[in-house]
Amino acid sequence: MFSVINLMVRRDILLAVRRPQDVMTSLFFFIIVVSLFPLGVSPEMEVLRSIGPGVIWVAALLATMLSLGRLFSDDYQDGTLEQLILSPQPLALVVLSKVAAHWLLTGLPLVILTPLLGLLLGLNGDEIQILTLTLLLGTPVLILIGSIGAALTLGVRGGGVLISLLILPLFVPVLIFGTGAVSSMNAGLGVEAHFSLLGAFLVLSLLLTPWASAAALKISME
């Protein structure tokens, strides 16, 4: 099982390296959205600090949604996806491998950039640390849930809009608990509950969404 995951992840990363513009689009979008808020809202650090966690989380969510359209589309267009469905490996394992590669290429860079953008918005060290950890737990959940929408809209015209309509409501709990952790810390409350819920979302997503995405892929390919 691990050899299959390793081969699939390495393959997707190698293909992405050959087309870096696909990966850089989401990263530049994330940076631009966060950077525009000081210009559009207020340059005051206190104002930026109060809205900073929400701004970074919303920007990360939108950047993740922007990248979901290519999760399965390239393999669908060149016929690789059909061969993967016919292969002896469980399709859910293939989906999990592609999600892992996608997170390494898009989700992890967002997490790495978060401390720098947090400094831009005036967040202190503790706030940046909590925010980074929530994104580390939350971005895989966003991609796992988004894989269902990407599979359902595969090959459909205007699939990007449909993905947003399908999965955006499912992102709301992750967004609430991700941003709420920093607010709870500033209010003197514990953040353990927020991290526990984000961890629970991650475990449930790992257990359920690969199978749901695999079933959706089979439906889309029929």
Characterization of the model:
It is a single chain. The chain is mainly α and 222 residues long. Helices cover 87% and strands 0% of the residues. The protein has helices spanning 2-18, 20-40, 45-68, 70-77, 80-86, 91-120, 125-152, 159-186, 192-221. Helix 6 crosses helix 9 (192-221) and helix 7 (125-152) packs parallel to helix 9. The longest helix has 30 residues, at 91-120. The chain is globular and about 55 Å long. The protein starts with a helix and ends with a helix. The model has no long low-confidence stretch (mean pLDDT 87).
Describe the secondary structure blueprint for this structure.
Blueprint (H helix, E strand, L loop, with lengths): L1 H17 L1 H21 L4 H24 L1 H8 L2 H7 L4 H30 L4 H28 L6 H28 L5 H30 L1
The gyration radius over C-alpha positions equals 18 Å
Question: Helical content, roughly?
Answer: over 70%
Structural shape: globular
Q: In terms of structural class, how would the helical and strand content be classed?
A: mainly alpha
